[in-house]
Amino acid sequence: MKIGFALPQFHKQALGIARTAEFAREAENAGAASLWVGDRNLAAVNPKVGYGGQGDSIPAELNTAADPFVLLAIAASATERVLLGTHVLIAPLYPPVQLARSLTSIDVISDGRLLPGFGIGWSPEEYEAAGSDFTRRGARMNELLDALDAIWTTDPAQYSGELISVPAHHSPLKPARRPRPPFYLGAMSERALRRVAERGDGWLPLVVVPSYVDIDGLVHQRTAIDQLAREAGRDPSAIDAVLRVNIDAGTTAQNVADTIKTVHERTGIDHFMVDSMYAVHSVDESLALATELIALVQKG
Q1: C-alpha–C-alpha distance, residues 161 and 275, integer Å
Q2: Could you give the CA distance from residue 226 to residue 156 in angstroms, rounded to a whole number?
Q3: Which of 45, 174, 189, 269 makes the best surface tag, with the fewest CB within 10 Å?
């Protein structure tokens, strides 16, 4: 199994972002397989839609968020081996040329270690702040994937769609990963699972330990992806998965490790990213938890 960790980006951990390079080096030296960032452009004071599309509130832990591209670039320059992922970028919020440029730079700096994970988000206010139509975010995501593919694989590059248009332009700087970095996609709804099956190189599901660990649901969703992929003429085994593991406050490292092992045995998922922003509040605590988890998971 491979286990990775979120960089110090949210809540009180964000106050330690000056130690991002240190965190990345120490986590890699401890045996981490990957390092990750998320994305929160803003947390609305009076949200129309609550966290994850549920309710009418957003956890305070999401009020403070550091820039994901900056943190990944720092981690890329501070490490040699770990994969560098986004779980997830709210991709439709970004202009495709700027998004491609930022991710290309990180992939080149890291010599091809980027795993870009994308989602469409759930916050209308984030789309309002970006000047984008929240109701068309799924369609915009589909066009964005096409635009990124064009920018990353052709020179000159251009793209023309209903919602996105990129004029012909010189595009000689390409990612180190060829033909392009893989598309990992967050998905729970039927429509999003279909996008994974038809377009994704990887799937980004989620559990929260111990409050939300639906292994049967993960199995059902993966079965749906596999069937939809076959219908689309794709090999389901070519679609990877990385499971996000959020940790509730007060949860022991042993509980998290046991959950990871159980999920692995039941689902076959072998790559996990752990986010401790709800559980611990400092870079030192996060590093200590990461080191302990690696040892527990590797113990078998």
Answers
A1: 36
A2: 35
A3: 45
Domain of residue 95: give its range. 2-299
First to last CA, the chain: 10
Per-residue pLDDT of the chain (300 residues; tens, 9 = 90+): 999 999 999 999 999 999 999 999 999 999 999 999 999 999 999 999 999 888 889 999 999 999 999 999 999 999 999 999 999 999 999 999 999 999 999 999 999 999 999 999 999 999 999 999 999 999 999 999 999 999 999 999 999 999 999 999 999 999 999 999 999 999 989 999 999 999 999 999 999 999 999 999 999 999 999 999 999 999 999 999 999 999 999 999 999 999 999 999 999 999 999 999 999 999 999 999 999 999 999 886
Which CATH number covers residue 270?
3.20.20.30
Give this prediction's pTM: 0.97
Length of the chain equals 300
- Tell me if the bond preceding 156 is cis, omega within 30° of 0: yes
Relative to beta strand 202-204, strand 184-186 is parallel
